[in-house]
Specification:
The protein is built from 1 helix and 7 strands. By secondary structure, the chain is an alpha+beta fold. The longest helix has 20 residues, at about 30-50.
Length: about 130
């Protein structure tokens, strides 16, 4: 079975609240990582139609800070699929709620493993190029 990447693309939006920020009024890196992992896991689960676990954070880049009150838009896409795992790319942008201007803030590459009801790795659909 094959599944196109377009079927599992996941977009998630957060508003930056005071408890998400450091003393400089920008988002904690750990909070961004949390949002990335949730968005990536939803994408991998959509592709596999299984529960998934994070196996690897291969790469993480912080490009620019995200300010208090701004919106955070995360977009996850399956980049490749192996036998039981999927590589997912997550891109993060911030949006100024007043101007609507967006800017890239982070990118991450993660690997998720699909699990069956007993918690054992299970085969995932191959990735069909859109």
């Amino acid at each position: 079975m094959q599944r196109p990447a377009s079927e599992s693309v996941t977009e998630m939006t957060q508003m930056v609240m005071p408890n998400d920020t450091n003393p400089r009024g920008t988002v904690f890196g750990g909070r961004v990582l949390e949002w990335i992992d949730v968005c990536g896991a939803m994408c991998a689960s959509r592709h596999s139609r299984c529960q998934v676990v994070t196996a690897k954070l291969a790469e993480m880049s912080f490009l620019s800070p995200i300010k208090l009150g701004h919106f955070v838009i995360l977009t996850a896409t399956v980049a490749s699929a192996g036998r039981t795992s999927m590589n997912v790319t997550v891109r993060v942008e911030s949006e100024d709620p007043i101007t609507g201007r967006r800017k890239p803030c982070s990118t991450a590459e993660l690997t998720y493993v699909a699990l069956d009801a007993d918690g054992m790795p299970v085969e995932v659909p191959r990735l069909k190029v859109d």
